[in-house]
Specification:
By secondary structure, the protein is of the alpha/beta class. It contains 13 helices and eight strands. α5 links the parallel β5 and β6.
Length: 315
């Protein structure tokens, strides 16, 4: 999500420069879908959302549900799926508002209850009654809220650089959450903005794989997704400044693994101390050289750490 910082700078430039309509059009959904739908892709209607999901891996193995972060998509988990699919049945989906699921219906709004209901409806429809759930960033917020609300269904909780405690959001999120910034963000996006901001989410930009920056750009530009991101950013900004964003963390009762990149400047690494205070019996793994998306930046090592944890916790 750091690449929205560039949108904030573009917004300032447009306002100060008095420019006219220099907006870039959304990409047609059909065009983006044709490029990113996979042979394994499926869709299901949940509360008016056409949820895009993939279910892959070992059909007889334990189930693992993966939830991506703000402005990302299910593709952020490609590396983990490749590393873990021989052992686990893996379900991942595009959170409403992002990816090929696309924008939420106008009458709907982002909340923990709303997103937990998406997870609940999706897993129930697929007959998955017990599973581990992992989430990164905003997806971490969804994952830990689900584990708190439905502990009887969650075997293990894994949060990766999660949204969780009050914090000052990065400038790009604060900008897009404001009316003017949000309006401009739905009109102005360039590939160079995305490239610079994806690099900001990595501890080392050299770890960005070919095609990743283009994918982030294409899916953000998919029809309706930019406006949806602005709506969700407004809600995230209110949450981050509230005293209740972390409500429930200290009451999580399922086995939990917290993973965090120490170079993360989006959900800052120092927030881990509050997890350690409120969940002292959780397991903790940190990565000194990684940033906000450790599972994308170094999928082999982080997936192996997850496998070791799950095997140990189940042994």
């Amino acid at each position: 999500m750091t690449w929205l910082r560039c949108i904030a700078l573009a917004s300032i430039a447009i306002v100060l420069g008095g420019c006219g309509d220099i907006g870039f059009h959304d990409l047609p959904a059909e065009q983006v879908d044709a490029q990113y739908i996979r042979s394994e892709s499926s869709f299901i209607d949940i509360n008016g959302n056409n949820v895009h999901y993939l279910i892959e891996g070992n059909r007889s193995g334990p189930a693992l549900v993966l939830v991506h972060g703000f402005t990302a998509s299910l593709h952020t988990w490609d590396g983990w799926v490749e590393e873990l699919k021989s052992d686990y049945l893996i379900l991942r989906f595009d959170v409403p508002g992002f990816g090929l699921t696309g924008p939420m219906p106008d009458a709907h709004d982002f909340s923990a209850d709303y997103m937990c209901n998406i997870v609940e409806q999706l897993t129930k429809s697929l007959g998955i009654t017990a599973f581990s759930i992992a989430g990164n960033s905003m997806g971490g917020y969804i994952a830990w809220n689900y584990a708190w609300r439905f502990p009887e269904k969650v075997e293990h909780l894994i949060v990766v650089d999660p949204m969780s405690y009050p914090q000052r959001l990065p400038p790009e999120i604060r900008a897009i959450a404001r009316p003017v910034g949000g309006a401009i963000a739905t009109r102005v996006t360039t590939e160079s903005m995305v490239s610079k901001s994806v690099a900001g989410a990595y501890g080392d930009p050299e770890n960005i794989q070919p095609g990743v920056e283009q994918r982030y750009f294409d899916l953000f530009m998919r029809e309706g997704n930019r406006a949806s991101a602005a709506r969700i950013a407004r809600k995230m900004a209110r949450l981050a400044n509230s005293g209740y964003v972390n409500l429930g963390i200290s009451e999580i009762s399922v086995p939990t693994l917290v993973m965090w990149g120490e170079k993360d400047t989006i959900t800052p690494f120092e927030l881990i101390k509050y997890w350690q205070r409120d969940l002292p019996h959780a397991a903790y793994i940190t990565y000194p050289e990684l940033g906000h998306v450790p599972m994308e930046e170094d999928p082999t090592r982080t997936a192996q750490d997850l496998r070791n944890y799950l095997h140990g916790a189940s042994g």
